[in-house]
Amino acid sequence: MQLRILGCSGGIGGTNRTTSMLLGERTLIDAGTGVGDLTVDEMARIDQVFLTHAHLDHIACLPMMLDNVLGLRDRPVTVHANRATLQVLRDHVFNWAIWPDFSAIPSPEAAMLRFAAMEIGETREVDGCRITALPVLHTVPAVAYAFDSGAATLVFSGDTTDSPEFWRALNAIDNLRTLIVETAFADREEGLARLSKHFSPRLLVGALAQLARPEAVEVLITHLKPADHALTMREVLEQGAGYRIARLEQGQVIQF
């Protein structure tokens, strides 16, 4: 299975793109501004979107992508997310005030957008990959996702702070090989990280102690804020010297 990183920054500016990943050719994981670098033809091939939560940097390009592919598809795009996230999309995005309601366009019977509620512990199979929602802790209802290709499992944390339930779910995965985990703030902003329920380097490295088989898992750091990305990554590497840690890069392709 192939995961292509369209965007993995915690902000915008220059070449920075916010969180979005393409699983195979037909499945988006989050829909941040990285989606905007896809061609229209690539967008038109997307059948499924799995959202970790409803914050803007993870959903920003979903409305415009649907608008782009209207008339180019004969089947809906299915958005999978927890019920709270789907309700936010209905109430605050696809509400005719912010953006047209694509769950009723071009008609309710042949709509471009379909919502599929997916709660923690549920699994969907897409193109031979089993996708399972895992528990995390953020300021809004959110999930992580485990992607099991059969050969290996990759987990993407989405936005989170330390959560024992998350690490227990990871430790139950026998073939976990890759963990993509956020670290939004440098240690000098640990207070802000705690308030907004994100990781800082010290908080992340402390939490990694709960990982049962760290020698088997590559840890890839995502969601670095642009202003402090170099400092934050340096702090993660210095404090996490005993782990296999690297920075997730925009444009990177992960095979698993």
Report on the structure:
With about 260 residues, this protein is an alpha/beta fold. The chain has one domain: Ribonuclease Z/Hydroxyacylglutathione hydrolase-like (Metallo-beta-lactamase, Chain A, 4-Layer Sandwich), CATH 3.60.15. It has eight helices and 14 strands. A seven-stranded mixed beta sheet has the order 6-5-4-3-2-1-14. Strand 3, helix 1 and strand 4 form a beta-alpha-beta unit. Helix 7 packs parallel to helix 8. The radius of gyration is 18 Å and the shape is globular. The mean pLDDT is about 100.
Summarize the structure.
By secondary structure, the chain is α/β, with parallel strands linked by helices. Helices cover 23% and strands 27% of the residues. The protein has a seven-stranded mixed β-sheet with strand order 6-5-4-3-2-1-14. Strands 7-8-9-10-11-12-13 form a seven-stranded mixed β-sheet, covered by helices on one side.
